[in-house]
Amino acid sequence: TWTTTNVVEEQIALIREQVGTKRAICGLSGGVDSAVAAALVQKAIGSQLTCVYVDHGLMRKGETEQVEKDFVAATGVQLKVVDAEERFLTALAGVSDPEQKRKIIGREFIRVFEQAQAELVAEAGAAGEDVAFLVQGTLYPDVVESGGGTGTANIKSHHNVGGLPDDIEFQLVEPLRQLFKDEVRMVGQELGLPEEIVQRQPFPGPGLGIRIVGEVTKERLDLLREADAIAREELTAAGLDRDIWQCPVVLLADVRSVGVQGDGRTYGHPIVLRPVSSEDAMTADWSRLPYETLARISTRITNEVADVNRVVLDVTSKPPGTIEWE
Ligand code: XMP
């Protein structure tokens, strides 16, 4: 019979058998899948696993701390955090085009991650150990979509770190390959992961970088982080987290409108709320949120976030609109 306890025990045995005495690396994104995969592998092989978290500076408020503190506390995993905020912001300077932003973020991410990987391989090499495995949070729907194949990931290291071979070949460890998303959440719960990680709604890899319409700057990111945190807080307080698929909060950085606040005229930016309901993100409908909740979010954002004087609601389904604005 299928129980999370059985799944966990079975996977732990399989991981131990696959990895043996070698070492493994796992990239953490802050998302559910990589967190649960890492927690499972940690349970199976302990200190033979090292996790890498690339902080690109595009995360929401508190999310990096969640990985650095709460996830580590819950699992005891060895974590290497790479602070790459400046690097990402420099690469994104002056860029407003959505596709170009995505490409830059993707490219920088791979470079930083590969560099961290190469450093770990080099460090382990000195200790005579073999880093042979890469852990990935591949789910069953991903396996089906890609035709079921897999095996090795051929990762090219473009950054030569002290005499390493150009190609580092890893075997993949994919302990979630037979699971659906809801099952992954149950396994995460069984492994004692924090609720905020296990129940986390989808969040795009390029992060807040694609939720700022216009150029991405530190100031704009900080502003959006505040607005987003308020929206999340109020949705949670209203008990609506399970009713919506996700709620992107978007800053229209290139738009200004006139407002009146306190002593007089303002000329600030609008924030867009994009709450959606969906089954699989392929199609979506805009969520009919209670007016009281929308009112609270609007009042708080315009009162508490400097330079924002308007909150608007996106009432477009997908299609024609995508969930994210970029
Ligand atoms: P769209 O905007 O295409 O989004 O309707 C569909 C779902 O995918 C998420 N999304 C991403 N997830 N990397 C990700 O891991 C990405 O680059 C990315 N772009 C969009 C989005 O949040 C929504 O859940």
Layout of helices and strands:
Layout: H1 4-19, E1 23-28, H2 32-45, E2 49-55, H3 63-75, E3 78-83, H4 85-92, H5 98-126, E4 131-135, H6 140-145, E5 152-156, E6 167-173, H7 181-190, H8 195-198, E7 212-213, H9 218-237, E8 249-252, E9 257-261, E10 264-273, E11 276-277, E12 285-286, H10 291-304, E13 308-313
Parallel strand pairs: 1-2, 1-4, 2-3, 4-6, 7-8, 10-13
Antiparallel strand pairs: 5-6, 8-10, 9-10, 11-12
The protein binds xanthosine-5'-monophosphate.
What does this structure look like?
With 326 residues, this protein is of the alpha/beta class. It folds into 2 domains: 4-197, 3-Layer(aba) Sandwich (Rossmann fold), CATH 3.40.50; 211-313, GMP Synthetase, Chain A, domain 3. The chain has helices at residues 4-19, 32-45, 63-75, 85-92, 98-126, 140-145, 181-190, 195-198, 218-237, 291-304, and strands at residues 23-28, 49-55, 78-83, 131-135, 152-156, 167-173, 212-213, 249-252, 257-261, 264-273, 276-277, 285-286, 308-313. Strands 3-2-1-4-6-5 form a 6-stranded mixed beta sheet, sandwiched between helices. The longest helix has 29 residues, at 98-126. It is globular. The termini are far apart. Residues 154-165 have low confidence and may be disordered. Bound molecules: xanthosine-5'-monophosphate. Xanthosine-5'-monophosphate binds at residues 202, 204-206, 246, 281, 318, 322-324. ATP binds at residues 29-35.
